[in-house]
Amino acid sequence: MPDNFSRTDLDTPSTGPRRRLLAYNDDAVGVGAEKVARFLGTGRYLMWQTIIVIVWICLNVGGFWWNWDVYPFILLNLAFSTQAAYAAPLILLAQNRQDDRDRVSLNEDRRRAEETKADTEFLARELAGLRIAVGENVTRDYLRRELDDLGDMLRRIEDKLEDQRNDGRTDDGPSDTAR
User: Fold this and answer.
1) Most exposed residue of 6, 63, 101, 162, measured as fewest CB within 10 angstroms of its CB?
2) What InterPro entries does the record tag this protein with (predicted)?
3) Count of CB atoms within 10 A of residue 158's CB?
4) What is the pTM of this model?
5) b or e along 43-82 (b: 16 or more beta carbons within 10 Å of the residue's beta carbon)?
6) What are the sequence ranges of the domains in the chain?
7) In whole angstroms, what is the distance from residue 133 CA to residue 141 CA?
């Protein structure tokens, strides 16, 4: 081993840009994979596949002069195998992209939930502060009730004074107001 390399240099993979033989856009491939996966999961695909298989079998069994795939239908099996070999990775790629979208959505939902919780806690603190402040101040209803009670008390006092004046007139003669 040359002296200019250390053990950690050999263990660490290089992070430089790699050159690709074929240049392709990962997102475009992913979008295409999602379209294919969506199509493979539809009744339309199953209908067309069934029609193609029935036509294939009819043309090869029907005794036509160009029956290219005789009874064990090896070519048809090869076509199905090839289709399955491409469909499975495309479906997995579409699922991975959906998982990525779900993860981003979940993180966004968590962020919103944290903001909502913080806002709710702030409002609860503010409301508690207002309740404490209002509890120390007089409310409109409390003031009305106290004024009504005070008015009732004043009426009773006036009634007692009036009763005392009326009692004093009948016993002593003229009241103090006449003097």
Assistant:
1) 63
2) DUF1003
3) 10
4) 0.49
5) eeeeeeeeeeeeebeeebeeeeeeeebeeebeeeeeeeee
6) 24-99, 112-168
7) 16
